[in-house]
Amino acid sequence: MSGGGPLGLRDDALAACVRCGLCLPHCPTYRTSGDESRSPRGRIALMRAAEAGAVALDAEWFEAMDTCVQCLGCETACPSGVPYGELMTATREATVRGHPPSRRLRAGLWLLGRPRLLRTGSRLLALVQRVGLVPRTGLLPRRLPVWAPRSRATGTGDVVLFTGCVMDAWQPEVHAAVEAVLEEMGTTVERSGDRAGCCGALHEHAGLGKEARRSAERVMAALPGDRPILVDSAGCGAALKRYGHLLGTPVAEAFAARVLDVHEWLAPQMGRLPTGRQTAGSVIVHDPCHLRHAQGCHGAVRDVLQPYMEVVELDDEGLCCGAGGAYSLTEPVLADEVRQRKVAAIGRAADRSGATVVVSANPGCTMHLVAAGVDVRHPMEVLAEALKEDPVEAGIGESVGDAG
Questions:
Q1: For residue range 231-248, what is the model confidence (pLDDT) as tens digits?
Q2: Is the sign of the CA dihedral 180, 181, 184, 190 positive or negative?
Q3: Cβ proximity of 286 and 360 under 8 Å
Q4: CB 361 within 8 A of CB 288
């Protein structure tokens, strides 16, 4: 039950933290800053104090909350099962009226809910980017597509591929790769298209719970039935799987049960694809936090790649790359410092293995790492090319820094 404080947090959720500190090595902002207020247990202590009226919600308090990347690495490491993600989401929603997101972020979130406008704006931005007037950041692909085919719902298909907003406009080649792989195994695909649109993940991340719930209702209304809903963006998949919790209805729970990460769905059915002989070289696997910590199905990426190529692991125990949705916009300095640790881990993996290509199943992570000069592709792109007759000729070993 809620203690009735200004944040409305559950007493048992706050009390679950015993301040053992086992979360600290898994928190990217604590690892970078060494500041207790930028650690999970420090933030929970500040939440407790706020609920008890023992601390003012001042600039310093909000800075502690704002600097959380919401990677959930602490949840995976916590032996007490502290629902940190729930606490942080509720805190941001409870305080958003007095501490709203920046105008720039709100404008971006507004655009995500308007797919046609997003595509038009993306085309114009791509043209401006071609003449060198757009600075390189982790918020954009290095080379936006000038034209992206519009994803249309067909009303048919064994499975539904959730196309979302940013992925559809900026990384359409990933959806095409997913379709190619599934069609290779005899599975027909329907795209969710504009009628479903944005999943609301970034809205919830920013504390805009009302807008997130509105997105969830729209997505659910657009995708009735009982067919599996496959997702090739880790962030979107995590959000769709949370609809039951977000909306708190049996209908939302049933919808969330239909949602599967595309690798999660594909892994048990790999026997339906042509047998691989690991002829496609080596790839370094980067686990998006929303796949590793939120969904817990990052192992499926290895399952679908290993029959065709050598998988090289990082040595940082899944530490966040610093992308965190719009985190590189709201906290650019911290996002860059966290990314530097990930890039160093990738460099060590490359030195050990000779691999030059990194695979990551989340668009935010991809763009954030590409902006640092890392060659990143989606696992399904690499798998689709490995299924071709000549994987080397198909480009698996080529530079992929301009992907997306």
A1: 999 999 999 999 999 999
A2: negative
A3: yes
A4: yes
- C-alpha–C-alpha distance, residues 211 and 216, integer Å: 9
Residue 154: pLDDT above 70?
no
Superfamily of the domain at 11-95: Alpha-helical ferredoxin (1.10.1060.10)
Measured from the Cβ of residue 318, the count of other Cβ atoms closer than 10 Å reads 20
Q: With a cut of 70, say whether residue 401 has pLDDT above it.
A: no
Global pTM value: 0.90
Q: Could you give the C-alpha distances from 398 to 5, 138, 358, 381, 382, in angstroms and in order?
A: 55, 22, 11, 13, 11
Same fold, 11-95 and 274-394: no
Write the secondary structure of 216-278 as one string of H (helix), E (strand) and C (coil): HHHHHHHCCCCCCEEECCHHHHHHHHCHHHHHCCHHHHHHHHCEEEHHHHHHHHHHHCCCCCC
Question: Amino acid letter at 100?
Answer: P
Per-residue pLDDT tens over the stretch 300-351: 999 999 999 999 999 999 999 999 988 988 999 999 999 999 999 999 999 9
**Class for the domain spanning 274-394:** alpha beta
Sheet-wide strand order for 259-261: 189-191, 159-162, 229-231, 259-261
Domain positions in the chain are 11-95, 106-265, 274-394
